[in-house]
Specification:
Shape: globular
CATH topology: Tachylectin-2, Chain A
CATH class: Mainly Beta
Structural class: mainly beta
Helix content: under 10%
Distance between the termini: 48 Å
Order of helices and strands: HEEEEEEEEEEEEEEEEEEEE
Length: 337
C-alpha cells in the first residue's frame, strides 16, 4: 500500500512539473506573439485608415466598412507600440453633425493649438444639388467626442470634376496647411485658412487646383522627405482585386506629379484589393510604415475590408520600394532580460 502511494505521488508530482513546463512554454509563446501586430491589426471591418501620432501614442482613424446607410459613425484605435491596439468607439457620430446622414468616409486628423480637427466625407453626393461633401469636426482629445465645427460642409461642390471625398490634410514644413482630396479620378489641392474655416487662393487666384496624375482614382496622401513631396493615391476599383497604391515625387506640393509606379498591391497568397492608405514615420527613427486596407482571400462582400500595417522602405535614390503585404505586420524586437 505504501509503495502504491509513493508511485501515485510521483505521478502526480511529475504531472504537476509537466504542467508548469507547458505553461511556461505557452507564456513564452504568448510573449513572442505580442511582438508582432499581425494583420489585420484589429478586429472588425474597417477601411481607408489614416495613421497619426499624438502625445507619444499611435492612432488609426478608419472608415467603418458597411453599407452606406450604416456608415453613420467613426471609431478610432490607439496603441503605444503599433502592436497592441485599443478601440475608441464612436468618436464621431452623425448625431453631432446634423447635415451628415450617411456614407461617413475616410477621416483625416490634425492637431493645431491644442485642438484636434477631424476632416471627413459624408453623404456620397453625386451632383452639386445634393447636401454633403467634406466636413470638419473638432475635439479637445484625439479620442473625441468630435462635434461639427462649421455647421455645414467645408467643400460641398464638385470642382474640376473631383467628388468631394477622400480628404487628407497636409501640413508643410513652412506652416502652411493644405487640403488634398477627390474621387471620380480627379484630385484637387487647396490652401486652408489658419482656422480651417475656408480657403486661401493661390497666387494665380485659383482656390481648387487640380493635381491629378495619370492613373489616379481616389485616396490621396502626401508626405515630405528630404525636401521632396511624395504624392500617393489609390488606383483601380475599390471593390476589385486590382485596387492598389501608386506614387509620384515633386519639388512642390502642387506638382507637377508624374506617376512613378505602384508600391502596394494584392498578393494572391495573402490578400486582394490592397489600397487607400496612409504613411507614418516612427519618431526619431528611419522606420516607415504604410497603413492600408485589404480584402481577405475569396471574400466576395465588397465591404469586407480590414486594416493592416507593413513596413515601407526606400532605396538609395529615395524611391519607395514595393511593399510586400504580410500576415505578420509590425515586428518589434524582444527586450533583453
Amino acid at each position: 500500500m505504501l509503495t502504491i502511494t509513493l508511485v501515485m505521488n510521483k505521478l502526480i508530482f511529475g504531472s504537476f512539473l509537466l504542467g508548469v513546463f507547458i505553461s511556461g512554454c505557452s507564456n513564452t509563446n504568448r510573449g513572442t506573439a505580442k511582438l508582432s501586430s499581425r494583420n489585420p491589426v484589429f478586429e472588425g471591418w474597417y477601411a481607408d485608415p489614416e495613421g497619426a501620432i499624438f502625445n507619444g501614442q499611435y492612432w488609426i482613424y478608419p472608415t467603418y466598412s458597411a453599407p452606406y446607410n450604416q456608415q453613420v459613425f467613426l471609431d478610432a484605435f490607439t496603441s503605444p507600440d503599433l502592436v497592441r491596439w485599443t478601440k475608441k468607439s464612436r468618436i464621431l457620430d452623425t448625431s453631432n453633425v446634423k447635415w451628415a446622414k450617411r456614407a461617413v468616409w475616410a477621416p483625416s486628423i490634425i492637431e493645431k493649438g491644442g485642438k484636434y480637427y477631424l476632416f471627413f466625407g459624408a453623404n456620397d453626393i453625386q451632383n452639386n444639388n445634393q447636401l454633403g461633401g467634406i466636413g470638419v469636426a473638432v475635439a479637445d482629445d484625439p479620442a473625441g467626442p468630435f462635434i461639427d465645427y462649421l455647421g455645414k460642409p467645408l467643400v460641398d461642390k464638385f470642382h474640376n470634376g473631383a467628388q468631394p471625398i477622400d480628404q487628407y490634410v497636409f501640413k508643410d514644413t513652412d506652416g502652411e496647411y493644405y487640403l488634398i482630396y477627390g474621387g471620380w479620378r480627379h484630385c484637387n489641392i487647396a490652401r486652408l485658412k489658419s482656422d480651417f474655416t475656408g480657403f486661401v487662393p493661390f497666387k494665380d487666384g485659383t482656390v481648387f487646383k487640380e493635381i491629378t496624375p495619370k492613373g489616379y482614382v481616389e485616396g490621396p496622401f502626401m508626405f515630405k522627405k528630404k525636401n521632396k513631396y511624395y504624392f500617393m493615391w489609390s488606383e483601380g476599383g475599390w471593390t476589385g482585386p486590382d485596387y492598389s497604391v501608386a506614387y509620384a515625387i515633386s519639388n512642390s506640393p502642387v506638382g507637377p506629379f508624374e506617376r512613378i509606379g505602384k508600391i502596394l498591391q494584392q498578393d494572391s497568397l495573402v490578400a486582394t484589393g490592397a489600397g487607400h492608405h496612409s504613411v507614418i514615420q516612427v519618431p526619431n527613427t528611419k522606420k516607415w510604415y504604410i497603413i492600408y486596407h485589404r480584402r481577405p482571400l475569396k471574400e466576395t462582400n465588397a465591404n469586407h475590408r480590414v486594416t493592416c500595417i507593413d513596413e515601407m522602405t526606400f532605396d538609395r535614390k529615395g524611391f519607395i520600394k514595393p511593399v510586400r503585404i504580410s500576415t505578420t505586420g509590425v515586428q518589434l524586437k524582444a527586450r533583453k532580460k
